[in-house]
Design goal:
- This protein is mainly alpha-helical.
- The chain is built from five helices and no strands.
- It has helices at 8-23, 32-41, 53-56, 61-66, 72-212.
- The termini are far apart.
- The relative contact order is 0.05.
- The model is unreliable at 1-9, 22-35 and 42-59 (pLDDT under 50).
- Residues 114-183 form a coiled coil.
- Keywords: Coiled coil.
């Protein structure tokens, strides 16, 4: 906060001195009342080497008149200018400190946000890397399964070709078996027919011999 504070008593005394000075003549302005106000506001004067006339015990009309004093208005203006400069410097200092504090807080907040963002980015990168590894592993499993499926299909095609070949051969062997069975049948039936023919001939011959007798 601003440390500069205006002394109300001094300001009131200065204002009273100004009002009093306006009511008096030019000679009265350097009178005891104005002198007392001036010395209260500025107890030391450059022409007296920083020594106060009141404190030194040499305050009299002669000493005061020998020193060219400023009017109460000038003294009051100087006082206000001094207070203004003091307040102005205090305000500048306060604003500078406040600005520096705000800049420092903003820098700290920005640094904190940057660190948080960096941590989030690092976490996201780790997550992405883990997902990429899982994806690569899954792709390897899929490729292996696809290879196994292709091999199974190829094996099935080979088996189907073998089955077709065996089926064709089975048809051939079936035809051969049927022909062999037919030949065997024919071979087994022909002797029986021949035997039957011979028996018939013998019976005919015997019957003809009996009739002749």
């Amino acid at each position: 906060m601003i440390d500069a504070r205006i002394n109300d008593t001094n300001i009131l005394s200065a204002r009273n001195a100004v009002a009093s000075g306006k009511r008096k003549s030019t000679e009265d302005k350097v009178g005891s009342s104005s002198k007392r106000v001036a010395l209260e506001l500025f107890p030391t004067h450059p022409s007296h080497d920083g020594k106060s006339l009141i404190n030194s015990g040499h305050y009299d009309e002669t000493n005061v008149q020998s020193v060219p004093l400023e009017t109460p208005e000038d003294l009051f203006d100087k006082f206000l200018n001094s207070q203004y400069n003091t307040i102005r410097e205090s305000c500048k200092k306060y604003l500078n400190n406040t600005y520096n504090d705000l800049v420092k807080q903003a820098d700290n907040r920005a640094s904190t946000i940057c660190r948080e963002k960096d941590m989030e980015m690092a976490s996201m990168k780790n997550t992405i890397s883990s997902l990429q590894q899982k994806l690569a592993s899954t792709n390897e499993v899929i490729n292996r399964k696809n290879t196994e499926l292709d091999n199974s299909r190829r094996r099935n095609l080979e088996l189907e070709e073998q089955v077709a070949h065996y089926n064709s051969q089975a048809e051939v062997w079936k035809e051969k078996a049927e022909r062999a069975e037919e030949m065997l049948w024919n071979a087994s039936v022909s002797p029986r027919r021949h035997a039957c023919c011979c028996e018939d001939e013998e019976d005919t011959a015997l019957s003809s011999v009996g009739e002749t007798r």
